[in-house]
C-alpha cells in the first residue's frame, strides 16, 4: 500500500514536471483511472479519449489503454508527444485485420464505402473513408445508408452485424472479434437473468448476437455507465470488460452490478472478462515512461495524413 501511494505521488509530480496529461480508458487499472481524473486528464470511451487528446493544450499525452488509442491520439495531434505505459498493449481486432489483407479486401470491393472501427492500425484507417467507435457507429452507418451507400465494414463482426440489423444497410463484414467480448454467452446469460429477474442487462456491442439480443441497453463504455446511472433499476448484469465496474459503482452508488457469464463456468473464471492488453497498463510502467520519456508512439506521417481524414469525418459528425 505504501509503495502504491509513493508511486502515485511520483506520477502526480512527473505529470506536472512534464506538463503531461493522462488519458485513460475505463478498462485499465482503477488507480490509473482515478489518477487521470484527479490530475485533470480524462477517463472515457474511445471517442471521448480521441476528442479530449486532440483538444487538450498539453504537449505530452500519456495514453493508458491499447495501441490503437495511442495511434489515434498521434494521428490527431502529430506535434504532440504521445507516450504509452506499454507499447505491446494491442487488441485482437487490430491483430486480426492486417493492413495488406485489408487493402486487398477493399480493392476487391471498390463500390463500397469503407467504414472501420477505431480498434485498428493507422494503416487500416488510412485506407478507410470513415472511422467509427462503438458510441457512434450505428448513427454513422444509418447516415450512409440513407444516402444509398453500400458499406464495407471491418473488423468486428459482432458490432458489424448488430449495426447491419439495426440499420438494414448493405454491409460486407470482415470477420474479426474481440477475445474478451466474444466469450459472453447468451445461454448462460439467460440462466443468470432467471436468478435476477429485475436486473437490467447492459451490453457492449462487441458481444455475440445472442447476448446483444437480451440487452436492455447496447452501447459504448460511456453509454453503459450513463445507463447504469439513469435507468430506473437497482440491479444490472453487465456484458463488457470488468474494468468498467470501478467507474460504474462510483457513478451509481447503491446499485448492484453483476458480471455477465463468460464461456466455461463463470463461478470458476472470475476474471475472464478482462482484456489482457488493457491489463498491461500499471502504476509502475506509467511512472517509468514519465520518468524516461520512453515508449513514444510514432505513426508514419504519410499514413497519418491519410488516416486523419477518416477520424476527422467521425469527429465532425459527432460535433
Ligand atoms: P469503447 O469505445 O466503447 O470504450 O470501447 C473500446 C473497446 O476497446 C471495447 O472493447
Ligand atoms: Fe480489443 Fe477487446 Fe481488448 Fe477492447 S477489450 S482492446 S476490443 S481485445
Automatic annotation (TrEMBL):
Lineage, top-rank taxon, reads Bacteria
Q: For this protein, what is the EC number?
A: 2.5.1.72
Pathway connected to this protein: Cofactor biosynthesis; NAD(+) biosynthesis; quinolinate from iminoaspartate: step 1/1
One Gene Ontology BP term is: 'de novo' NAD+ biosynthetic process from L-aspartate
Task: Give the co-factor note.
Answer: Binds 1 [4Fe-4S] cluster per subunit.
Q: Which family does it belong to?
A: Belongs to the quinolinate synthase family. Type 1 subfamily.
Name recorded for this polypeptide: Quinolinate synthase
Organism, per UniProt? Answer: Massilia cavernae
Provide the gene name from the record.
nadA
**Part of the whole protein covered:** 34 to 352 of 377
Amino acid at each position: 500500500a505504501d509503495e502504491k501511494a509513493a508511486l502515485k505521488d511520483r506520477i502526480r509530480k512527473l505529470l506536472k514536471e512534464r506538463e503531461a496529461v493522462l488519458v485513460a480508458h475505463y478498462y485499465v487499472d482503477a488507480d490509473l483511472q482515478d489518477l487521470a481524473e484527479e490530475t485533470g486528464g480524462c477517463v472515457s470511451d474511445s471517442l471521448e479519449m480521441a476528442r479530449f487528446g486532440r483538444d487538450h493544450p498539453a504537449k505530452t499525452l500519456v495514453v493508458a489503454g491499447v495501441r490503437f488509442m495511442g495511434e489515434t491520439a498521434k494521428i490527431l495531434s502529430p506535434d504532440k508527444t504521445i507516450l504509452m505505459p506499454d507499447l505491446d498493449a494491442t487488441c485482437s481486432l487490430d491483430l486480426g485485420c492486417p493492413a495488406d489483407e485489408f487493402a486487398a479486401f477493399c480493392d476487391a470491393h471498390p463500390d463500397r464505402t469503407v467504414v472501420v472501427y477505431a480498434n485498428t492500425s493507422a494503416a487500416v484507417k488510412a485506407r478507410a473513408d470513415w472511422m467509427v467507435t462503438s458510441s457512434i457507429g450505428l448513427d454513422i452507418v444509418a447516415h450512409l445508408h440513407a444516402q444509398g451507400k453500400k458499406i464495407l465494414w471491418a473488423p468486428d463482426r459482432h458490432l458489424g452485424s448488430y449495426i447491419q440489423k439495426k440499420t438494414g444497410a448493405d454491409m460486407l463484414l470482415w470477420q474479426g472479434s474481440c477475445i474478451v467480448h466474444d466469450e459472453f454467452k447468451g445461454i448462460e446469460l439467460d440462466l443468470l437473468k432467471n436468478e435476477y429477474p429485475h436486473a437490467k442487462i447492459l451490453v457492449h456491442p462487441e458481444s455475440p448476437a445472442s447476448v446483444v439480443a437480451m440487452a436492455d441497453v447496447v452501447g459504448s463504455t460511456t453509454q453503459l455507465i450513463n445507463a447504469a446511472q439513469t435507468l430506473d433499476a437497482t440491479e444490472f448484469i453487465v456484458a463488457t470488460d470488468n474494468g468498467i465496474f470501478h467507474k460504474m459503482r462510483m457513478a451509481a452508488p447503491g446499485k448492484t452490478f453483476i458480471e455477465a457469464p463468460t464461456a466455461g463456468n463463470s463461478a470458476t473464471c472470475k476474471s475472464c472478462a478482462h482484456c489482457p492488453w488493457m491489463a498491461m497498463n500499471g502504476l509502475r510502467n506509467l511512472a517509468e515512461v514519465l520518468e524516461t520519456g520512453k515508449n513514444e508512439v510514432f505513426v508514419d506521417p504519410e499514413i497519418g495524413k491519410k488516416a486523419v481524414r477518416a477520424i476527422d469525418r467521425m469527429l465532425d459528425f459527432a460535433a
